[in-house]
Amino acid sequence: MTKTPIIAPSILAANFAHLGDDIKKVNNADWIHVDIMDGHFVPNLSFGAGITADVHKVTDQPLDVHLMIDNPEKWVDDYIAAGASCVIFHVEATDDHVALADHIRSKGVRAGFSLRPGTPIEPYLKDLDHFDLVLVMSVEPGFGGQSFMPDQLDKVRYLRAEIDSHNLSTLIEIDGGIGEKTITDAAIAGCDAFVAGSAVFGTDDPHAAVESLRRLATV
Ligand code: DX5
Ligand code: ZN
């Protein structure tokens, strides 16, 4: 069955001096992916809840907030207040992923978890019903513009089978190295949502790039 893919441009690859203008260029995107990096969980810094709130003021598009930070428990409320539609944290950064997901959902916001490429999915399968989304990393988190890791599609296929066999509505999103050469394989493997940074904002026409990715992900 053909389903409509969700395309989520990552503003990490946008021009931060013209962020509002860049977001307008992708007004055809389904979600806006917001990468939060703390310089501890990943060796890079991006921006925080203040800029996320400013982004929310300039667009009605849902904000898909990807927290690559230590102690996410301490910060999730700030991102909910900033206008996140979905808050995604890393399972490697918390001792109680279920409690944190339940907390996020209790605020009326969708909850997601992400895993580094080397983190196995199996221990988390039993908790999928606490989550609206799983974000599979297809690069080591921390930087845009890296090469796609095709072996992560095994994780996607495994998750797809598990979600379908239990009739769950949890979405599978993939992040890292997604572009015209990789998005179709990710869609065939079973992804619902696709983050793309450099493949959107690194082109002359981000609006057209979103359309093209959506077409290539429709399988
Ligand atoms: C990486 C971030 C990604 C990044 C993707 O740690 O989570 O969202 O922006 O960038 P590209 O699409 O360029 O790989
Ligand atoms: Zn991300």
UniProtKB/TrEMBL annotation:
<comment type="function">
    <text>Catalyzes the reversible epimerization of D-ribulose 5-phosphate to D-xylulose 5-phosphate.</text>
</comment>
<dbReference type="Pfam" id="PF00834">
    <property type="entry name" value="Ribul_P_3_epim"/>
</dbReference>
<keyword id="KW-0862">Zinc</keyword>
<keyword id="KW-0413">Isomerase</keyword>
<feature type="binding site">
    <location>
        <begin position="142"/>
        <end position="145"/>
    </location>
    <ligand>
        <name>substrate</name>
    </ligand>
</feature>
<dbReference type="GO" id="GO:0006098">
    <property type="term" value="P:pentose-phosphate shunt"/>
</dbReference>
<feature type="binding site">
    <location>
        <position position="10"/>
    </location>
    <ligand>
        <name>substrate</name>
    </ligand>
</feature>
<dbReference type="GO" id="GO:0004750">
    <property type="term" value="F:D-ribulose-phosphate 3-epimerase activity"/>
</dbReference>
<dbReference type="GO" id="GO:0005737">
    <property type="term" value="C:cytoplasm"/>
</dbReference>
<comment type="pathway">
    <text>Carbohydrate degradation.</text>
</comment>
<feature type="binding site">
    <location>
        <position position="175"/>
    </location>
    <ligand>
        <name>a divalent metal cation</name>
    </ligand>
</feature>
<feature type="binding site">
    <location>
        <position position="35"/>
    </location>
    <ligand>
        <name>a divalent metal cation</name>
    </ligand>
</feature>
<keyword id="KW-0119">Carbohydrate metabolism</keyword>
<feature type="binding site">
    <location>
        <position position="66"/>
    </location>
    <ligand>
        <name>a divalent metal cation</name>
    </ligand>
</feature>
<protein>
    <recommendedName>
        <fullName>Ribulose-phosphate 3-epimerase</fullName>
        <ecNumber>5.1.3.1</ecNumber>
    </recommendedName>
</protein>
<keyword id="KW-0170">Cobalt</keyword>
<comment type="similarity">
    <text>Belongs to the ribulose-phosphate 3-epimerase family.</text>
</comment>
<dbReference type="InterPro" id="IPR000056">
    <property type="entry name" value="Ribul_P_3_epim-like"/>
</dbReference>
<dbReference type="InterPro" id="IPR011060">
    <property type="entry name" value="RibuloseP-bd_barrel"/>
</dbReference>
<feature type="active site" description="Proton acceptor">
    <location>
        <position position="35"/>
    </location>
</feature>
<feature type="binding site">
    <location>
        <begin position="175"/>
        <end position="177"/>
    </location>
    <ligand>
        <name>substrate</name>
    </ligand>
</feature>
<dbReference type="GO" id="GO:0046872">
    <property type="term" value="F:metal ion binding"/>
</dbReference>
<feature type="binding site">
    <location>
        <position position="33"/>
    </location>
    <ligand>
        <name>a divalent metal cation</name>
    </ligand>
</feature>
<keyword id="KW-0479">Metal-binding</keyword>
<dbReference type="InterPro" id="IPR013785">
    <property type="entry name" value="Aldolase_TIM"/>
</dbReference>
<feature type="binding site">
    <location>
        <position position="66"/>
    </location>
    <ligand>
        <name>substrate</name>
    </ligand>
</feature>
<dbReference type="GO" id="GO:0019323">
    <property type="term" value="P:pentose catabolic process"/>
</dbReference>
<keyword id="KW-0464">Manganese</keyword>
<feature type="active site" description="Proton donor">
    <location>
        <position position="175"/>
    </location>
</feature>
<dbReference type="InterPro" id="IPR026019">
    <property type="entry name" value="Ribul_P_3_epim"/>
</dbReference>
<feature type="binding site">
    <location>
        <position position="177"/>
    </location>
    <ligand>
        <name>substrate</name>
    </ligand>
</feature>
<feature type="binding site">
    <location>
        <begin position="197"/>
        <end position="198"/>
    </location>
    <ligand>
        <name>substrate</name>
    </ligand>
</feature>
